[in-house]
Design a protein that fits this description.
- It is built from 13 helices and 14 strands.
- Helix 1 packs parallel to helix 2, helix 3 crosses helix 5 and helix 6 packs parallel to helix 7.
- The strands form 2 sheets. Strands 1-2-3-4-5-6-9-10-11-12-13-14 form a 12-stranded mixed beta sheet.
- The protein has about 500 residues and is of the alpha/beta class.
- The two termini are about 30 Å apart.
- The chain has a domain of about 325 residues.
- Helices cover about 25% and strands about 15% of the residues.
- Strand 4, helix 6 and strand 5 form a beta-alpha-beta unit.
- This is F-box domain-containing protein.
C-alpha cells in the first residue's frame, strides 16, 4: 500500500463521491478509515475530508476546543457552511451587538478566528455560507415594536474581528420568518473579507416587527462597508405585506436604499449586480434634481432587477392606501399613475447607454402578465431588446427613443421582439418601425399555412428522435468497453 502512486490513491478516493464529483460535497461512505491504512494515505484523505465542512454551534465549539482545524487542514478547505443555532439571539440593531448577551459575539469571533488561520495564498479559495435556520416552533418570540427613530447609530466599541483574506465568496441566507438580525452585522462581517469576489444575501424582516423602515435604512447605510474587491453582487430583500410603517425610506426626495444601491452598482471593479426587492426607477438613473451623482457604470456587465411589491409602490406614488394593492381588480396598477413601467424602462435605457461594458440588463415586475424587459449586447444576430407583458402593453415614444439611443451607443442595430411568441397582436408594435420588429422564428405572413405543407418525410430523412436513439446506443457500447469511472467523471 505504501508504494501506490498518489494519483492511484486519489482515484480510489474519488469513488467515495456520487459520480466521482468532489464538488458536490457529499460522500457515499466515510473517508476516515482510509487514513489509517498507511502513512501515504493520511494527507490525501485529509485533503478530501476537510475540503467541504458543514458546522453548527456544537461542532464549531468541539473543533475549536480540540484544535482540530490545524493550518495544514485549513489549507484544504474550499467550502464551509455554518448554521447558527436556531434559538440564537441576534441583535436587531447593529449597536445591540453585545446587548443580547455574549453568545452571538462569541460564536462569530470563534468562527472568524478559526478561519483567520487559513494560510495566505495568491488567490482566495474559500466559499463561506452562513445560514439562519428555520425558527424552532417551540421557542416563542413575542411581537416587538422597535419603531423608527432617525438619527445616528449609538457609538459603541466595534467587534474585534480578524481579517479573512482567503474568503472568495460569501452567501448569507435567512431561512427563518421570525428572526430578523440587523443587516449591518452581516455587512460588518463582510467588511473583514478584503479579497471577496462574490457576495450573495437573502434578508427579510420578520412579520413580527412593527417597523420595517429601521432595517431598510440600516441596510442602505451599511452597503458602503462592503469590500471594493467584489465582482458579483446579489441581494434579495423581501418586505412582508403588512408594511406597518411604510414601504420606502425617503431622504432628500429619494428612497435611501434605492440611492445607495445605485451608487454601489457604479463601483469600479463590479461586474454583475442583481437586486430583488422594492425600489424606485432611480436605481438606474439619478433624479433630475440630483446633478452631483455620477452617471457612469465603468465596469458593470449585467444589471438585473427583480421587482417586489410593485403594486404597493404604485399606491405609494399615488398617495393611496396599500390595501388597494391587495385587491385583484387593482392588479393592473403597474401601468397606471404616470406610467411606472415606462419610468423604469427609460431609466434602464439611460443607464445601459452609460455602461461601456454592458452585456445584459433586465427588469422583471413579477406580475401575472410576466411584464419584463431585457437588453442584450452579446448576440448581434438576435434582437437586442425583448419586451414581455400583456397584449395591450403601452410603451411611450420617449421610452422607445431612449432604447434606440442605447443600442446606437453600443453599435447595435436596434431590433425588438415583443412577447414570447413574437407578439403578432401586441399593441406596442405601433410604437416601433416595421423593420425594427423581429418576428418569432419561422413565422412570416407570406408562408403557407401548416395544413398546406407536405409533412411526409423525404427519402433518407432521419428524425431527431432517431438520432438520439443512435447516440444512446453508441454510449451503451462505449460503456461496455470503458471503465465506469470514465463516465462518472464526464457526467
Amino acid at each position: 500500500m505504501d508504494r501506490l502512486a498518489p494519483e492511484i490513491i486519489s482515484n480510489i478516493v474519488s469513488h467515495f463521491y456520487p459520480g466521482g464529483c468532489r464538488d458536490q460535497g457529499r460522500r457515499i461512505a466515510p473517508l476516515a478509515p482510509l487514513a489509517v491504512l498507511c502513512r501515504h494515505w493520511q494527507p490525501l484523505v485529509e485533503a478530501e475530508t476537510f475540503r467541504h465542512l458543514r458546522l453548527d454551534g456544537e461542532s464549531l465549539h468541539f473543533i475549536a476546543q480540540n484544535r482540530v482545524l490545524t493550518p495544514r487542514r485549513l489549507s484544504y478547505l474550499r467550502k464551509l457552511v455554518y448554521e447558527f443555532p436556531c434559538r440564537h439571539d441576534f441583535p436587531t440593531r447593529f449597536d445591540e451587538w453585545y446587548k443580547k448577551g455574549p453568545a452571538f459575539d462569541l460564536v462569530v469571533k470563534m468562527l472568524f478566528y478559526q478561519l483567520a488561520e487559513i494560510p495566505l495564498g495568491q488567490e482566495p479559495l474559500l466559499d463561506l455560507e452562513l445560514i439562519i435556520p428555520p425558527f424552532d416552533e417551540h421557542h416563542h418570540v413575542p411581537s416587538k415594536d422597535y419603531g423608527y427613530q432617525p438619527g445616528p447609530v449609538i457609538k459603541f466599541t466595534l467587534p474585534d474581528l480578524p481579517s479573512l483574506p482567503m474568503v472568495r465568496s460569501l452567501e448569507i441566507t435567512n431561512s427563518s420568518f421570525d428572526i430578523d438580525p440587523s443587516p449591518r452585522i452581516f455587512m460588518y462581517m463582510t467588511s473583514k473579507m478584503p479579497r471577496l469576489r462574490e457576495f450573495t444575501a437573502a434578508l427579510s424582516p420578520s412579520e413580527l416587527r412593527a417597523s420595517l423602515i429601521q432595517q431598510r435604512v440600516e441596510l442602505a447605510q451599511s452597503l458602503s462597508e462592503l469590500p471594493m474587491s467584489i465582482h458579483t453582487f446579489s441581494l434579495k430583500y423581501h418586505q412582508h405585506h403588512r408594511l406597518p410603517d411604510g414601504l420606502l425610506a425617503m431622504q432628500g426626495g429619494e428612497d435611501i436604499l434605492t440611492r445607495e444601491l445605485r451608487r454601489f452598482s457604479q463601483r469600479e471593479g463590479l461586474k454583475d449586480f442583481t437586486f430583488y426587492g422594492c425600489v424606485e426607477p432611480s436605481i438606474f438613473w439619478p433624479p433630475a434634481s440630483d446633478t452631483s451623482d455620477p452617471r457612469h457604470w465603468p465596469t458593470l456587465k449585467s444589471f438585473v432587477l427583480n421587482m417586489d411589491r410593485v403594486q404597493e409602490l404604485t399606491c405609494f406614488r399615488a398617495k393611496e392606501p396599500f390595501s388597494k394593492a391587495r385587491h385583484v381588480q387593482n392588479w393592473d396598477r403597474v401601468y397606471a399613475h404616470g406610467g411606472l413601467m415606462n419610468e423604469f424602462y427609460r431609466a434602464a435605457a439611460k443607464c445601459s447607454a452609460c455602461m461601456p461594458k454592458t452585456e445584459y440588463n433586465s427588469i422583471d415586475f413579477n406580475d401575472k402578465w410576466g411584464t419584463s424587459l431585457a437588453f442584450c449586447t452579446v448576440f448581434p444576430e438576435d434582437p437586442c431588446l425583448n419586451l414581455n407583458g400583456k397584449p395591450d402593453l403601452e410603451i411611450e415614444d420617449e421610452t422607445v427613443d431612449e432604447w434606440r439611443k442605447a443600442a446606437g451607443v453600443h453599435n447595435l442595430v436596434f431590433k425588438v421582439r415583443l412577447g414570447e411568441d413574437g407578439g403578432a397582436e401586441h399593441n406596442a408594435r405601433d410604437m416601433f418601425k416595421p423593420e425594427e420588429i423581429v418576428e418569432r422564428a419561422g413565422v412570416h405572413e407570406d408562408e403557407p399555412e401548416e395544413a398546406d405543407v407536405d409533412e411526409t418525410p423525404s427519402e433518407g430523412f432521419v428524425s431527431r428522435n432517431e438520432i438520439i436513439e443512435r447516440l444512446l446506443q453508441m454510449q451503451q457500447q462505449y460503456q461496455q468497453v470503458l471503465p465506469e469511472p470514465f463516465f462518472s467523471r464526464s457526467r
